[in-house]
């Protein structure tokens, strides 16, 4: 067949981009084209020769044009099928699962074709049975519904050669290889194969299951789960196993356990695949046999020949404290067959009441004995357990103890065990009967109360009640009370038949009925107390019952009533009792007038007033408390100005009106001011210190001698003060003195008149010397005096030059004029005028003299002189009068300036003296501190000194807080200054051993009160009704041992023998805090020449040597032995007891020496600090004052003074007067100059300066 190139071209257009698929060989193109035409849809195709020739001009084919047509869906031109091939197969192939086999038929040319006739294919495979449903002929030839069955031996399948034969074809057979896998589950195969299976109860049964397809092949697929359900009993397990991987597995699970099985029991096992409903289940019958393992424990108790079974959780009552014997132990399986206990089984048996078990006894079925608890409250839980690989069994029982026979009685107190005296016990006592272990016996009845008895010391049985308590099987005792007896713990005895028990109750005081004062002497007698002093012991009151027992009732208010004039410090009058029923008012001090005063304490309890005995205080005046100052002086003496006061003798009086001695004179001062002071604030102008006490005067008096009387006349107040402490001062009564003028000395006017300048012209005013001049008699200090003098004043004119005879005369040509003088004054009312044309030298200075003529005066007075200038010319007189006034003014101003500068210079000198003294004091104290090894830095001295003082004070306080031996014997109140105190308090001893032996040696005298006078001793004797021994010093003969006498082995400065044992006079070991001379008298009499030595051997040796030359005194050893002066030693009478046996009646230890060293160092440091501060202050004052002298104001004043002095000299030269006379006159009367910017010198310095100027 020839095809046109056009046809090929048309076909190629369908394969654009795939031209490689078109065959290049011409012979092959036509079948290709036909094949494409068979599969493609062409409506028409016309091949022209021309085109063919154009396309294949070079080919061998050439023919005329061929016209053909292809119709879609119609097979035209198919040849006869000659052969076939197998198409693509769909995997997998499983047994019994249909699958299709596609066939591709070809003609002889290999072209696809179709079957034209009815052919039945033949399928064959070795070992397989093959079937198919049909063969579809046509374009798609398929053998449908092919099933293969046969053995494949594995879940992975097996390879088979499948042979397909199509009879009638030239090549009718095709063989291809397939892998056939097992088919879907079809049936279950369960092993064992028997229908009835036997297993023991409590075991698991394994099944071998296989999942088979319809050909019997083991098959597997996902989620292939095989279940086994057991039927025939409750709570049976369900087995399941997964066969998804291998199709076979062991089906097993939990053990099959049926409770309470006693015989064989049939069960049904249903095995199925829940996911494969088409697979029929397999059922097996299971015969469940009772287990042969231990299934039950049984415990028996042998009671004689009878065995009593003890079931699980049984409660057994048994006698307390007894032992349970013969406990039998048995084990059974599920078939109630007893199991023989082997050694291995015995190892698995445990009991909880003992750690050790006899295994051989267990193999015989015997359990260990059980100890029953002794208390009925202790229940014993007994557990027997068996544990092996199959079962865990327990058998438990409880043993409850029962009380034994009565053996004791037991008392129990409900409530408080405290009973107040006189009242019933608030609590109730239950008496129970118990066995030997204390378990209450509950078999008794109410009849047992008749056998119960109660006894005890001081028990009051009048209200005793015994009752039976049915609910508790006890006997109750009420009404326990006691008669008045000693308080404290009381033991009550309760007896029942032959049994007894004891119970302790605490007997306390009854309800408060009265108040008592604790630890005080007999209150029937007045208690001696010094006014203002504290009592020797605190005031403590105790609530007591009616029998005097302390009653511990807290918060009871205690009030205090007292005499109206009795003051108590502290003043809190209300207190409350503490938990012990006590109220401590503390140590109070009594302030009251001398005499007896009462004090009473009261309490209010349950609206009942309780009172304590009245305390009567015999208030004695305090001999050491200053209350007033006694001043003695000559009250008839006069007080002339500038003179000296009479001697003032001041003493400090105590409350008993006796003089207080041993007072530092620095604490007494004398103050004086002008006028009369009123109120608390007293002005003080002058303060005088005490003069040195003269040896011939009595002790206790302070003298103020040679004190200067003020220079100005007037009323003055004097008061003496005593510094009781740093803040409190004791003032005497004010002494009012009138300072009167001193002896008349001079005649002076009220005010100094100006220097007159006169002439002898007609005008009276030019000839007037003075007018309205008042002259008075003055003493040395310019006080008006001579008020009682009567006489005359003679005025006359004198010339400074005695040879000058030309003297001016008064008007009337007289030389003298007399004026009356009355009551100390002369008044020149009329003008004193010169005579007209009076003689006199021109420009000459004359003196107007006023001479007093007083017959009553023995000593003439100094006249008053007034200088004046005389001129003959009126004009010149007027000029000179002007110069004279200027001279007077300058003289007055210069006098004030000089007075001021003199005072200032004196102040500077005094300040420099103070600086010098302060420097000397500082250097001296610094050297003293160096002697105490205290070096001071050059800088920050005050800070260093302050810190050092603080440290020294801390060290001193720490030293004082250290324990120190003290005398605890109460001292006698010093109500009188004549009472020195008890001997135990008069001396102190540093060495402990010496203090012990000397205190013991003077034991009989330690309590003796030493007085200065027999009167004071008698007063103490009367106050104590003779119970207190006293020793008046005025009754002691004064020939006592010389305290400076050497020891007996020293004679005439030579050592007679070498002693051993460090002998020393006992008196030399004593130190006396106060009244040294009196104490030396006392202890010189008591100790004499008693010697202290180390030990008895040294004392005997010393005595043996001393008696060779002189009598030997009593010897005391530091070990406590005594050899009397007669040589006797040994025995209890001559051996000192230990320190604690002396009961505090021992001499105290003095303040440590280091304390005194600290005190001295602190005092020096404080003095040095004050000296440094003072040196700094005076230096500052001096520098400040020196700077003030160089200020512009002061320099200006100095310049003004120089200029005024120069002017004055010029004026005096012009006047022809004596230089500076007027200045001296002006200085006689003080003139105040207002200079506010100038430093004012101290008042004392100003007075001294004025005083010197007056003189």
TrEMBL record:
<dbReference type="Pfam" id="PF26197">
    <property type="entry name" value="Ig_SMCHD1_5th"/>
</dbReference>
<dbReference type="InterPro" id="IPR058614">
    <property type="entry name" value="Ig_SMCHD1_5th"/>
</dbReference>
<dbReference type="GO" id="GO:0006302">
    <property type="term" value="P:double-strand break repair"/>
</dbReference>
<dbReference type="GO" id="GO:0016887">
    <property type="term" value="F:ATP hydrolysis activity"/>
</dbReference>
<keyword id="KW-0175">Coiled coil</keyword>
<dbReference type="InterPro" id="IPR058612">
    <property type="entry name" value="Ig_SMCHD1_2nd"/>
</dbReference>
<dbReference type="InterPro" id="IPR036277">
    <property type="entry name" value="SMC_hinge_sf"/>
</dbReference>
<dbReference type="InterPro" id="IPR058613">
    <property type="entry name" value="Ig_SMCHD1_4th"/>
</dbReference>
<dbReference type="InterPro" id="IPR038892">
    <property type="entry name" value="SMCHD1"/>
</dbReference>
<dbReference type="Pfam" id="PF26199">
    <property type="entry name" value="Ig_SMCHD1_8th"/>
</dbReference>
<dbReference type="GO" id="GO:0042803">
    <property type="term" value="F:protein homodimerization activity"/>
</dbReference>
<dbReference type="InterPro" id="IPR058617">
    <property type="entry name" value="Ig_SMCHD1_7th"/>
</dbReference>
<dbReference type="InterPro" id="IPR058616">
    <property type="entry name" value="Ig_SMCHD1_8th"/>
</dbReference>
<dbReference type="GO" id="GO:0043584">
    <property type="term" value="P:nose development"/>
</dbReference>
<dbReference type="Pfam" id="PF26196">
    <property type="entry name" value="Ig_SMCHD1_4th"/>
</dbReference>
<dbReference type="GO" id="GO:0005524">
    <property type="term" value="F:ATP binding"/>
</dbReference>
<feature type="domain" description="SMC hinge">
    <location>
        <begin position="977"/>
        <end position="1103"/>
    </location>
</feature>
<dbReference type="Pfam" id="PF26198">
    <property type="entry name" value="Ig_SMCHD1_6th"/>
</dbReference>
<dbReference type="GO" id="GO:0000781">
    <property type="term" value="C:chromosome, telomeric region"/>
</dbReference>
<feature type="coiled-coil region">
    <location>
        <begin position="908"/>
        <end position="935"/>
    </location>
</feature>
<dbReference type="Pfam" id="PF26201">
    <property type="entry name" value="Ig_SMCHD1_7th"/>
</dbReference>
<protein>
    <submittedName>
        <fullName>Structural maintenance of chromosomes flexible hinge domain containing 1</fullName>
    </submittedName>
</protein>
<dbReference type="GO" id="GO:0051276">
    <property type="term" value="P:chromosome organization"/>
</dbReference>
<dbReference type="Pfam" id="PF06470">
    <property type="entry name" value="SMC_hinge"/>
</dbReference>
<dbReference type="InterPro" id="IPR058615">
    <property type="entry name" value="Ig_SMCHD1_6th"/>
</dbReference>
<dbReference type="GO" id="GO:0035861">
    <property type="term" value="C:site of double-strand break"/>
</dbReference>
<keyword id="KW-0158">Chromosome</keyword>
<dbReference type="GO" id="GO:0016604">
    <property type="term" value="C:nuclear body"/>
</dbReference>
<dbReference type="InterPro" id="IPR010935">
    <property type="entry name" value="SMC_hinge"/>
</dbReference>
<dbReference type="GO" id="GO:2000042">
    <property type="term" value="P:negative regulation of double-strand break repair via homologous recombination"/>
</dbReference>
<dbReference type="GO" id="GO:0141068">
    <property type="term" value="P:autosome genomic imprinting"/>
</dbReference>
<dbReference type="GO" id="GO:2001034">
    <property type="term" value="P:positive regulation of double-strand break repair via nonhomologous end joining"/>
</dbReference>
<dbReference type="Pfam" id="PF26195">
    <property type="entry name" value="Ig_SMCHD1_2nd"/>
</dbReference>
